[in-house]
Amino acid sequence: MLLDALTKGMRKTIIAGNWKMNKTPSEATSLIEEIKPLVADANCEVIICVPYVDLGIAIEATRDTNIKVGAQNCHWAESGAFTGEISTGMLKELGVEYVVIGHSERRQYFGETDETVNKRVKAALAAGLKPIVCVGELLWERECNITNEVIARQIKLDLWDVTPEEMANVVIAYEPVWAIGTGKTATAEQAEEVCEFIRACLKGLYGLEIAASVTIQYGGSMNDKNAAELLAKTNVDGGLIGGASLVAEKFAAIVDATKPAEY
Ligand code: 13P
Fold first, then answer.
1. Can you tell me the distance from the alpha carbon of 70 to that of 130, in angstroms, rounded to the nearest whole number?
2. Which of 73, 80, 100, 148 has its CA 20 to 30 Å from the CA of residue 158?
3. Which residue CA neighbors atom 2 of ligand 1 most closely?
4. Number of folded domains that form the chain
């Protein structure tokens, strides 16, 4: 859509690494030291979403740099008998700024539902954290031609009761489940088609202005080779990167792919 193209430059471009369950604290320190100089002149927001045990050292190691730190989940309660969970207050006190919520691996392996995703999103926003809300269809849902229905439902339920004001702090990540960790990237056209549809859903829920301002990332086998083509698409405002974010040079190359071509 023409309007989406006109407003692309106004949206924040965000490249976020989702380290998943990788890197011990000492390994995290080394990787961050490698990444730091390579992304120092980035012209986009750079985030690393690290395992809970690496958060403290990541915050320290990125102090006075342009790298922001994110967690990979948070609970909705302030405190209590929730063994194994981490509260938004705990993350906030550490200095965490972003939090990935509703990743398909949480939905697939840990019983996360749109209802719990929504609770976590609202708790994160209430605590002043910026949620990166993940949505995406399974392969068989795509094959059954219900991608749009699945995405519309996730967007509506995951953002239920999120206010228009709070949307300024929400990032959406479109991650087709069949493209995650499979080496099978969505084509730039497929990514654009769904990201455009997500923006249309946001328009229906929040109106044109807010829809035009929300950063929508693509995630799923994004790497240093395919990033530029994906990021050039009108409604793809960044990337949520798994495997390639664990290799400093590859992650930095994706960050560089957000820079406008030089003539
Ligand atoms: P990969 O880049 O390893 O496919 O993972 C994508 C992802 O799930 C990011 O959250």
1. 9
2. 80
3. 242
4. 1
Chain CA centroid to CA 146, Å: 23
Active site residues: 103, 175
- CATH number reported for the structural domain that contains residue 171 in this entry: 3.20.20.70
- Which residue range is the domain that position 22 belongs to? 5-256
165 in any annotated domain: yes
Note whether 137 and 182 are within 8 A (CB): no
Find tokens 């083509």 and name the residue: 229
- Residue 102 Cβ contacting ligand 1 at under 6 Å: no
Predicted model pTM: 0.97
- Which of 14, 175, 185 most suits a substitution to test ligand 1, by most atoms within 8 Å of the C-beta? 175
Residue 262 lies in a domain: no
Does residue 263 belong to any structural domain of this protein? no
pLDDT digits (tens, 9 = 90+) for 56-99: 999 999 999 999 999 999 999 999 999 999 999 999 999 999 99
Cα-to-centroid distance, 183 and ligand 1 (Å) = 9
240 lines ligand 1 (CB under 6 A): yes
Ligand 1 in reach of 180 Cβ (< 6 A): yes
* In a domain? residue 78: yes
